[in-house]
Design a protein that fits this description.
This is Amidinotransferase. The protein is α/β, with parallel strands linked by helices. The chain has helices at residues 14-17, 54-70, 114-124, 160-170, 212-221, 230-234, 254-262, 273-276, and strands at residues 27-31, 74-78, 95-97, 100-102, 130-131, 143-145, 150-154, 174-178, 191-195, 202-205, 226-227, 241-242, 246-250, 266-270, 287-288.
Length: 291
Amino acid sequence: MSATFDTQLPLPTAEQASQVRVPTRRRYLMCAPQYFTVEYSINPWMDPEQPVDTGLALAQWTALKEVYQQLGHTVETITPEPGLPDMVFAANSGTVIDGVVLGSRFRAEQRAAEAEHFRRWFLRNGYRDVVMPTSINEAEGDFTWTGTVLLAGTGFRTDPGAHAEAQEVLGVPVVSLNLVDPRYYHLDTALFVLDDQSDRPQVCYFPGAFSAGSQKVLRRLFPDAVIATEADAACLGLNGVSDGHNVVLPLEATALGGALAERGYQPVYVDISELRKSGGGPKCCTMELRG
Ligand code: ARG
């Protein structure tokens, strides 16, 4: 009576059963794009001739913030400052692990003043261990915590000296990675962490953004990583934010979302078209406050 099998619910395979993804609650710091414009160009995405709709950017940012809140996460905010149009990209202003804050030092003078506003926010909000870097350091733009090691990008923004400084200040092992494609100028445009809660962290990345040696390092460290395509990367799909189960992605990143769903993750799509005109996506707008 083989026909009766058709009506039975399929049991998960052993592999699927081991892919139950558990979200953990996060605390994020964000900055509203109240003064967002593209009036200078410090990456290939930024064209000051292209019109920008600040109201639309604000609506997209607000929707992103609400997605985090609906997922059960806490969102703190910092007051935006006039004259700092990129301050919305909060990820660039601090790396926080176990309550220790390593601030930032921007490469572009147009963004330099952001670092001090964030430093003051940390001090006002109870952080006692706040260190400002001496090397160029664009924080979570180039630093990604996997739960066991801190992946650190260099090539366009953050200086390699900042990697050694991060290891010393944060007391975590740092793995340096070389970025080679100017479109993927920050590590967080080419790689993000899907699961930082296990002793076998899982990441997703676009190999083409990395030097040959760094690609080897990534293969060695993360043999079962989700490998993204050029199309995934080109909509800033690698600028995702994962809580271990839900993965917030730009809405164009449907192929990547499908690949993640196959691994047991839940893609959550947001429209960040206006912020992308500055080279930013969901992760750029989101600094994680750990501990
Ligand atoms: N326009 C900004 C810059 O070039 C975008 C920063 C995006 N932030 C990020 N974490 N990748 O600096």
